[in-house]
Amino acid sequence: MNDHLHTALCLAATGLPVLPLRKGKVPFGNCRHCAKNACGGRPNMKIPGPCTCPRPCHAWAAASSDTAVLRSQEWVGAWREAAAVAYHPGGADVTVVDLDNPAAVRWARESLPATRTVPTTRGEHWIYRGTMPSSNAVRPGVDIKSLMAYARWLAPGVGAMAVLPAAVRALGVKEPAPAHRAPQRLTAASAGHGGECPHRTPVYLDRGIAMAVQRISEARSAVHATVYRTFLAVLSTHGRCGCLTEGHVTRLFTAAQAKGESPRHCTDAWTNALTTLGL
Description:
3 domains; five-stranded antiparallel β-sheet; 279 residues; alpha+beta; 9 helices
């Protein structure tokens, strides 16, 4: 038994769905049973759920926690050629925030709740409990791997695994089309519901606004998307109790306009975030 198969069997015994990877961190190609879409669509990875063919193809859909499958004759050749072991995060009810360089790691340490971390060749994997749609390049050097995706197994990691936060979910949300009747002047900071404020102290809110301003100010690309996602994250955390003021919103809009966003774009992004969250 080679080392990769041994690792895969140990992980599968804990319930983690695993698969072999070729050199270059790529999955094995489709088997003859699934060539030319013969199996009904999974070569395009559009349908959630495991691959039903007996061979390790279809990337994330090939992942299995069944040790009998992993040991089966159909998988022998793949494990013989394997260069690494991967797993399906969504199948394990986790989300991996893949930080591909030191700058991305610094951003995560400043912007995201601490959780279990795994060192990678160029950065870190931050692993949260919970699933969401996978998305690449949600910001420079950051990919999200969860449902219908695979991540390379590197180590168990260190630290307690936190619940998937709203800030990570917001990264994967694409901004909807601009609202047709977006207001041109804010008459209320967030249209909060006036419920009991859970923040206890204004320091928590001020720190959140400061981090949001920094996130916008440090954007080097996809500024429009970054502004929207930041607005969405702020509102998801602070928008329901009515504690956001015009001063807070002005700080956010000022940061966005300093990066080239127009007042109209800021207002549209804010309105769209409110609509997305049902505020």
